[in-house]
């Protein structure tokens, strides 16, 4: 390794110099796809730098998609740097690409059921609405009638919302952004699950907030771990998805949520409860918004339970934060589209929304049953009423290698590092989403290909240099 002499010739932070050397050696073929980089301590000793410098260098290289870190295994050069973004970034495919790739990466709800009711709604809408009011500027929180409909909708999920505390936003992602802006400032810390929604990670990064992953188990966040973080790190809030958590599908128990709420009260934390998937679970715990309403921002979205193109989200906000979030909504969006919100409110009142929830639950269960049949023992959890599942990989596969091989087969999956709060601590797994595929036949065909990959791992390369 000639890195010591090459680093001396560079200016600027040492960690960036190391990261750039990794990029150069990958580009020239010195570092090969799948090759394992030296452990932090070993490389620090060879280069005469601190372990922290090497850790920052590896983190930077990970963010650039050059390497991937895996718990208990080390840091590896990605198998195909040019295609890394397709397996770690959540992006909507162009129509031209959809015929070539079955997308099990983007977590969309199934489509089709709402098309007829949407056409029927558009045909009748002009006769049913007050066009003058719809076409005017509206309050940032939304029209009063729309907030009343939203409160009625949220009441289906285990608490009694007040329409005056509802803020209409431009989908769940906008709701997450508003919530983080409202409860924290530059440099503050937010506790979340160790694997969490990438949109929340991106929002926190843009706001210069520090995410702290707290340990979880099959019942949700572990209270002892959360309490220790609160004692040592003094976070401002908890961001959590208690029902069908993304990506793990874990649903917290009622007892666990009550413990989390008690800790939040003890340390005076805000709670951001992202419940966009909660509608899929017919038997579910009461939301944190019911347990600790004075400190919980509750987020729901029509985009998941009705149709992705209906970019309408609902926030239920504690009184102390209401004016702040209304001001932030005006600043970032001015107002959500009254026409879209009118359609959602109409569907809530005429029963279309309830029909769609029932349909989505059936679709999700049917697709999970297909996954259980095809994946069999490769799945570690029973099928759920969920559009996504968490697939741990056998030791013979690394997640980036598996995702790249799947992409060659025409199947897109998302690797665990997209969700990991600490990128170098991603577990050995991928998330599969079953909603975006056009048909159950397409899902079954894609999963059969994935099983073929799992059962036929790549041969381990071994040469004299690796042995030495």
Q: Short summary of the structure?
A:
The chain is of the alpha/beta class and 468 residues long.
Index terms:
Arc Repressor Mutant, subunit A, 7-stranded mixed beta sheet, 13% strand, Aspartate Aminotransferase, domain 2, disordered C terminus, 3-stranded antiparallel beta sheet, 21 helices, single chain, Aspartate Aminotransferase, domain 1, 468 residues, alpha/beta, 3 domains
Characterization of this structure:
Helix content is 46%, strand content 13%. The protein has three domains: 3-77, Winged helix-like DNA-binding domain superfamily/Winged helix DNA-binding domain (Arc Repressor Mutant, subunit A); 83-108 and 354-455, Aspartate Aminotransferase, domain 1 (Alpha-Beta Complex), CATH 3.90.1150; 131-350, Type I PLP-dependent aspartate aminotransferase-like (Major domain) (Aspartate Aminotransferase, domain 2, 3-Layer(aba) Sandwich), CATH 3.40.640.10. Mean pLDDT is 87; it is low at 84-88 and 462-468. By secondary structure, the protein is of the alpha/beta class.
Write the layout of secondary structure elements.
Layout (H helix, E strand, L loop, with lengths): L2 H6 L5 H15 L11 H8 L3 H13 L3 E4 L3 E4 L6 H5 L6 H4 L3 E2 L10 H15 L2 H4 L9 H11 L11 E4 L2 H12 L5 E4 L5 H9 L3 E4 L2 E2 L2 E2 L1 H11 L3 E4 L13 H13 L3 E5 L13 H4 L4 E6 H4 L7 E4 L2 H15 L4 H13 L1 H24 L12 E5 L6 H10 L2 E2 L1 E2 L13 E5 L6 H16 L8 H4 L1
Parallel strand pairs: 3-14, 5-6, 5-9, 9-10, 10-11
Antiparallel strand pairs: 1-2, 4-12, 7-8, 11-12, 13-16, 15-16
Helix pairs in contact: 2-4, 3-4, 9-17, 10-11, 10-16, 18-20
